[in-house]
UniProtKB/TrEMBL annotation:
Keywords: ATP-binding, Cytoplasm, Magnesium, Metal-binding, Nucleotide-binding, tRNA processing. The keyword Repressor does not apply. The gene is tsaE. InterPro entries: P-loop_NTPase, T6A_TsaE. Coiled coil: none annotated. Transmembrane segments: none annotated. It is found in: Cytoplasm. The keyword Cytoplasm applies. This is tRNA threonylcarbamoyladenosine biosynthesis protein TsaE.
Amino acid sequence: MKCYLPDEQAMAEFGGQLAQAIDAGGVVFLLGDLGMGKTTLSRGVLRGCGHTGSVKSPTYTLVEPYDTPAGAVYHFDLYRLSDPEELEYLGIRDYFSDDALCLVEWPEKGAGILPQPDLEIRLSLSGPGRELELTAKTQKGQRMVDILNK
Ligand code: ADP
Ligand code: MG
């Protein structure tokens, strides 16, 4: 599934729709270069989960936990991770529990340690906006895509 998102607001709104398409957590990989809108999309998902406070980019902390009305959300940004093994010290197994939603920016940096995603979202430049491409990797991910397609 592909779609064109013309501006920041459309990106955040798409995040809100994605939040509605998730029923019991899951792992979402956010792929795309710096500045493609991964954090904007994550902010939209968190808003859609009912989080009203601020959403900061977890560039330095690697992970930011949120206790939202829709359940636990962990927002990762692994850009600064130098070795996937560091994730073991963060105790990431606790984060990737069945009912938590994990949004992961720069999952490439955690290769070999991160679990497989349910959904991959690839963001790229397209004119003044962004193209978003969704790929379901599990049945849970496919259910999310089916709901988004409706
Ligand atoms: P990333 O986390 O991928 O590095 P950010 O979410 O921080 O990217 O966004 C970088 C910039 O891109 C921000 O200025 C944001 O407003 C802008 N942006 C986000 N989505 C879109 C879009 N669909 N079209 C145009 N600009 C966008
Ligand atoms: Mg970011």
